[in-house]
Specification:
The chain has helices at 2-19, 53-63; strands spanning 24-31, 39-45. The protein has 78 residues and is of the alpha+beta class.
């Protein structure tokens, strides 16, 4: 059941960004080490997390079901 829960959460995260046409660069899952079967997800997306309304909405929606912590936001290097 643990793998199924992780896969369901990962699918929900991917779908949230996909529905809003946000480019998902990578998603990595790691066990929390706090509770068996619980995972942290590290997501890297293309876009401005502070000024893009679609990204803001996606993060807010995911925050309703998961703990969300923004680690950084970087401009695209040209």
């Amino acid at each position: 059941a643990d793998a199924e829960e992780r896969e369901a959460a990962m699918a929900e995260i991917i779908n949230e960004f996909s529905e809003k046409n946000i480019k998902l660069i990578s998603i990595i899952s790691r066990p929390t080490k706090m509770k068996h079967g619980k995972y942290h997800f590290f997501v890297d997306i293309a876009g401005d997390c502070h000024n893009n309304q679609k990204i803001i909405e996606a993060i807010e929606n995911l925050g309703k079901h998961y703990g969300v912590k923004q680690l950084g936001s970087y401009d695209i290097i040209r």
